Amino acid sequence: MEKRIRKTLFLTGLIIFILTAPVLILRSQGFRIDYNQKKLVRTGGIFINPTTPNVEIYLDEKLKKETGVLSSSAFIKNLLPKTHSIEIKKTGYFSWQKDLIIKEKEVAEIKDILLIKQNPQFDILLENIEDFFVSEDKKQILIKKQTENNWSLILLDIATNKYQEIFSTNKLENIIFDVEIKEWDIIENKILLQEKIQNKNAFIIIDYSSFPEIEFFSLTPGSNIEKITLNPFNEKEILFLKENRLFTMDIIQEGNPILFLSDVSWFEIKNKTLFLITPSGFILKIINKNNGKEILNKTPLIQDVQKEFSVFNFKENLLLNFANKLYKLNKQGTFEEIFSQIKGFKISPDFEKIVIWKNQEIWLSEKNNKEYFSFLNRFSKNIKSSFWLDSSHIIFIIDNEIKISEIDNRDKINIVTFNNFKNPKIFFSENNKQLYIFSENTLFISEKLLP
Hints:
- By secondary structure, the protein is mainly beta.
- Among the domains are: 3-32; 43-113, Sandwich (Immunoglobulin-like).
- Helix content is 6%, strand content 50%.
- A four-stranded antiparallel beta sheet has the order 5-4-7-8, with no helix packed on it. A four-stranded antiparallel beta sheet has the order 10-41-40-39, with no helix packed on it. Strands 11-12-13-14 form a four-stranded antiparallel beta sheet, with no helix packed on it.
- The longest helix has 26 residues, at 3-28.
- The chain is elongated, with a radius of gyration of 30 Å.
- 24% of the residues are buried.
- The model is unreliable at 23-30 (pLDDT under 50).
């Protein structure tokens, strides 16, 4: 090869290197040319972690990644800093869509993406059901089954979905009128019921702790009873409120009621602890019968007609639900109002979040949220009830529609709807990932809704 040709090739290669090397170096450092803005910018990325396996991930309407056995998540890099559309699909499932703003030198994270089946299977578990009640530990369901002349109580094990009848009136010689369930103690294996017909001051206790042997107790503690429960401090007694006084009564021997405490407007039992509110607005705490009373608040609560309340622990704070308001007990001994006009609330399975629903709105509290509660969504009709599906999704009822919603409020919130049930009452089991629906005297159970 002639010297002139070699020199030409060398100079050509050198020029190409000089021209492309900076570009390659800049690309390796995450720089790209944004032709719309006509300038050099640093790129960003998206990390996507779906909980549903084997999905397709689309970026700006183009298939970008597929998850599988070897890779359950995806990282898409070198994205220009602008709004990108992400869609996640799987055949037979509702798709997930969101537009996210990608910033320079930052990675946007999308975690716990759940795709819901478009037509999940629901099977009939039991028919002729009047109502069902979920145990405090979420491991059992107590079912009241009603026939024309009789009623029975059935226990359902949520882990296996197997059930057994523990009591039926058709096995008794004496007539027992229809009842409603007032309390269910899964530790002592007792059920407290109140007659719905004739004498409403008559109560029944069913003790199935020695099942199949059943103990049956009838009680008539008197009239004008405002609230009655099993005594958390004595398994052989009941506790009831009457005319601002709290009484106990022996279950076996019955006898006359014994005064336990005076000046009580209402009471609540939580984890074998007794909480009371006095007519003057102070909340008292009693752990056992002999340890005395602890006054929780130094500043009294204002009481109008409403006196019922409930207490919960959340992030080492005691929360009080009273008069449609949510309070937190602060270090100064005052219940400070943190939310008003609430219809209900639930704490997430990871104990890091609270979902609150008002008439037509859903609000959310998350860790490190400076405002404590942030707005999530608003609907045209009232919300009936809500549960956590997992720590990133909620399930709730509006009219006859059952809706599942994510809590990620960046861009639009993904919601799916089931409307095959009339006036439904629901419970979602975190243990077996199945949804229980009570509708038209029938208890249905879904297939697993979570992976």
